[in-house]
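Sequence, please.
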């Protein structure tokens, strides 16, 4: 995912930024944070996972300076693969394959899936809890794995 933002504060290995699209403040963990200064406009690339904390936190894979605020790019989708452990009317409880993480996946057509089924979930953002058990995903699409 990509966020265009204005740097508010700079710390060692972190930035406090304001998202240009919704004015939300976000704490961004990034090892080269000290190369930015308050007032810089930046483009942040991250994996789509965001904590529920105040302010929410993300880990950036890269941050680039941009000269002028721009229209945010269209959202990109990320993928998570897991096994359905519980199903309700509009959500699934999913165990991520290869980890101990469980996610509540909000999806309008969750009735199409069954307990024990392996699925691929496309999403734009994960809202992580701390500790990370039962974090929430709003799915854009879900497909069975073969």
């Amino acid at each position: 995912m990509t966020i265009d933002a204005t740097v508010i504060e700079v710390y060692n290995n972190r930035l406090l930024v304001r998202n240009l699209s919704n004015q939300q403040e976000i704490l961004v963990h990034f090892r080269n944070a000290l190369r930015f200064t308050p007032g810089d406009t930046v483009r942040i690339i991250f994996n789509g996972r965001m904590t529920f904390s105040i302010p929410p936190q993300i880990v950036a894979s890269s941050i680039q300076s941009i000269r002028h605020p721009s229209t945010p790019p269209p959202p990109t989708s990320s993928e998570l693969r897991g096994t359905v452990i519980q199903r309700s009317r509009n959500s699934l409880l999913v165990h991520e394959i290869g980890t101990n993480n469980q996610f509540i996946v909000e999806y309008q057509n969750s009735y199409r899936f069954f307990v024990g089924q392996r699925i691929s979930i496309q999403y734009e953002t994960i809202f992580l809890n701390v500790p990370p058990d039962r974090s929430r995903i709003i799915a854009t699409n879900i497909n069975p794995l073969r």
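Residues 105 and 137 are 5 Å apart (CA to CA).
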